[in-house]
DNA sequence: CTGAAAGCGCTTACAG
DNA sequence: CTGAAAGCGCTTACAG
């Protein structure tokens, strides 16, 4: 029942632990282990089903070959697929992935980072929560490799991979305007996060450049923590207060989903009564009738770029010497929820 | 830059490592550490930001307080949410979660199990792949705690949490029959997995009991590995060969999604030309027009029951002494894709 | 009430 | 070409 150790292998072969270790770590040649010895060792290892104990290895080397992935919510389409691709890429490079969800809660995020540091993860890929500045600063001064994804911490220089939220939002709004919509409602969440602010800026600039009026009163912002019910109620109320709107811009995909429900309940037809577009794609938007126009995040790009960048930082001497950012262009996918506006009869 | 260790704390306080260790592990009282000493130690620990090195701890104790979660695909709605809930429950109980996706590939699954064993995970929650029997047997004889979820390995007694696939399928078929449908096509994947076989059995029994004819020719089975395109083509062909069908039963949710696309392409309207039901819910089915009737897996139940069962096994002496199974009842959610059949005029 | 010391299973500089 | 030994940072039986 007891697990086999290198000592057992060495003893049975009348050789030393050193030799076994060299074979296991592929250093036979470099260390001048004879091919005969090497074969003997390898054979017994596979016969006994020996596997090196990784706790001992980590303790000794300080390297765990594990990366910590901290996302907002692993149950969500975007992060679930990010995790999946990162895992595949990490495995290719001999790394494991330890994941956890923050639910966008600062305390949870802090605990996760600490927990992972004690497990000696070699580096992090982090979806920051709003108040994570101090923790991130500490990682930086401690020279721990990490890459921020999806959102930045204002005023800290880090390695990052993010979407060009401004551009996506600008282009999505521009698309609506080009198709003849002019009274566009912007529905977002109340947030200091750079990504949400960029999306708002993109919307506002597109409107302003087109000479269309916007006021803060014509925008709806709900709380991230609000229940689905609360949000839907808020959107319904908003629609009643703004009967002149001809299009809605949802700043996140879950707001889009809730918004569609709210529109249904109000008896408003998409796109005839109201055109809609949403930031962030999901399976749903593609298959709904009508299908929904979106600014999509190229998930594959984001995931592969972040793991690639992280591994590079891990293998650098001066971890944070020079930070590097990758900005991913969103893809505007035009579907049926935002056709050329029919002129009123 | 160097991390603080227990030794540093002990030295600075002129006390022993033992004392520090007792304080950290909450054994002060039991071991008779004076409150004064305890406070001194605690203060310095938080001042220095000390955190015990978990590799050393694992090496020494053999317990990692980590559970390994092996799912089919973390990017998928069902498993993503399973993972999320398991993580939350595990954290509540002081456990971490190490996850990985098998993509339903035997070799990947085997590698994952081995990798996790070397990292001394305390137990596993596993979505088995078809040829995983030997690995599972080994876990069993090695007395390693594990719980199978979502699907079983035929002829091996294990701890498990699965859905009552037979019942869900039976009831879903019964619902169609009760609503007047009699020519029901069954679309599934070619698979030896117990869950798929149970779903087929449930369908067949419901049909037989109702005195409705079924033949293997009236069922379509595609390969799990088929691309979306291939499946859609197969479904289209199937529909042309069986023009008399009045309803379709999709045995998985992704088949349902592809089926809906195929129906759209064939110009068949749901539910007037063809009623449909699907096994497994997802966000999509709720929001499509028409919304889709499903047998839903109570994700929350499945996740909490499996982690609860696993933790209990971990804390038992005789890990596999008596295996325990939990069978979860699916929930039939009746939506708009399967209304009472209109009589032909 | 507290400390010295063994040992978990590895890796690696050093010695021969 | 190969081995003896130190040490990574903890926990815990043992001693006092």
Q: How far apart, in Å, are the first and last alpha carbons of chain A?
A: 82 Å
**Total tally of structural domains of chain A:** 3
Q: Would you tell me the structural class of the helices and strands of chain A?
A: alpha/beta
Envelope shape of chain A: elongated
What's the total helix number of chain A? 14
CATH superfamily of the largest domain in chain A: Response regulator
- Share of helical residues of chain A: 40-55%
**Count of individual beta strands of chain A:** 12
Quaternary form: homodimer
| Uncertain spans of chain A | none
Order of helices and strands of chain A: HHHHHEHEHEHEEHEHEHEHEHEHEE
What is the topology, as strand order, of the major beta sheet of chain A? 2-1-3-4-5-11
Radius of gyration of chain A: 26 Å
Describe this structure in words.
2 copies of one chain form a homodimer. The first copy, chain A, is an alpha/beta fold. Chain A has a 6-stranded parallel beta sheet with strand order 2-1-3-4-5-11, sandwiched between helices. In chain A, strands 7-6-8-9-10-12 form a 6-stranded mixed beta sheet, with helices on both faces. The longest helix of chain A has 16 residues. In chain A, α6 crosses α14, α9 runs parallel beside α10 and α11 packs across α12. The radius of gyration of chain A is 26 Å and the shape is elongated. Chain A is 46% helix and 16% strand. The model of chain A has no long low-confidence stretch (mean pLDDT 90). Chain A starts with 5 loop residues before the first helix and ends in a 12-residue tail after the last strand. Chain A has 3 domains: 44 residues, Orthogonal Bundle (434 Repressor (Amino-terminal Domain)); 129 residues, 3-Layer(aba) Sandwich (Rossmann fold), CATH 3.40.50.2300; 133 residues, Response regulator (Rossmann fold). In chain A, α13 links the parallel β9 and β10. The first copy, chain A, is built from 14 helices and 12 strands. Chains A and B meet through α5, α6, β2, α7 and α12 of A and α5, α6, β2, α7 and α12 of B. Chain A binds a DNA duplex (16 and 16 nucleotides) through α2 and α5.
